[in-house]
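[job 0412] stage=fold_complex status=start
inputs:
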Amino acid sequence: MAVAIRVIPCLDVDNGRVVKGVNFVDLVDAGDPVEMARFYDAEGADELTFLDITATSDNRDSAYEMIRRTAEQVFIPLTVGGGVREVADIDALLRAGADKVSINSAAVARPEFIAEAARQFGSQCVVLAVDARRVPADSRIDLASGFEVTTHGGRRGTGIDAIEWMARAEEAGAGEILLTSMDADGTKAGFDTAMLAAARAAVRVPLIASGGAGELDHFCGAVDAGADAVLAASVFHFGKFRIHQVKDSLDAHGLTVRHTPVPAR
Amino acid sequence: MKKVVVFDYGSGNLASAAKALRRAGADVEVTSDLAAAQEADGLVVPGVGAYAACMAGLLAVRGERVIGRRLAGGRPVLGICVGMQILFERGVEHGEITDGVGEWPGTVERLQAPIVPHMGWNTVKSGNGSALFAGMDPESRFYFVHSYGVRAWELEVSDPFTPPVVTWAEHGGDRFVAAVENGPLSATQFHPEKSGDMGAEVLSRWIALL
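[job 0412] stage=fold_complex status=done
writing structure:
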């Protein structure tokens, strides 16, 4: 008996539509997050993550409506993140049907936000998303771990040590960490396993590896480095891998997964 | 069709529980109305977040009386996650002790595992005589998300009474109660409403018992 390694597809949603790299052939409307969520539920995804759903506050209502419709359709946990700035945002997302909410920039700007969220809703629904990069060799920034927290999609450095930040967030009540390597993201060259291992050594909350998945053995590498869950977007959206293929690969590597019946395609 | 009330006392993902119960074949109402909660064929008590906050919410609407009255009349109640934990005698979070409803003796305390919260899909070890899990593939997995649990079952029952069926789960070397079936009172630490087809199966079986 052991908890299964979770395989999590990530949908980037803006203004109620899935954006970036969606290429399903068998969906009526590949841009509809509700339909894609239902698709991944049937495929055996262990959780779903929606990110960047609310680029502007004008789009909030459509985001909540989209979450509500999605939550109606799927019977697995749903994490929502992007633009979450205050406790009221979390409350509204949970009421719409999210099970967990990920916070990122707002926590960097105001670290007390993590504790406020955890106190109100419980650690189990507070996911800290960390977008981190390796400090370049020629940088004047000197961080103990060599990994720096970034904001604005990796474009802006913060001078904060990513590993220390995760430990602080755990202390404040974050119940899970979604760690994205901005160096690896989009490269399909594999997760940043050194960064994952450093994070694993620093925190004892569950750790989701994100950024860089391109081959099946990359997922095994992330788990070997200490991840409890693996998240990917384009390899699933473009149909390079199906969820069960990732699970079979983890299983063959001796890791525990949740097998589900594989739908015909 | 069996009528099920999902009890709205300010805690829990009520919509998720409601739609999963509908999918499992019940006529569902989400309400804090005590009469409706009293009269339904089944009452579901959800719950997420902190033990103390859940208990405070329950007491504020006198939910503990509804639970007690239903059980006195043999009418089924199902607690889910913190909705299960508050059925025990007490919860301890951050050193703070909160009295629970006390239908069962025992303490809800922090899990002793390397990685906490226990978050994800896990198997369970079904108790003998379980109606909710009997005959299921032991590899069936259910979705858990919690940092606290009941690590010792303290209720001893001897003849002529039927002992409760206790189902266990394990995470990181720690063992805790995953489900209890005790006459009209049932509970799961995991979220059947978030546990895909296997969770739906557990809910269907519970509805079939109503």
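[job 0412] summary: Chain A has one domain: 6-253.
[job 0412] exit 0
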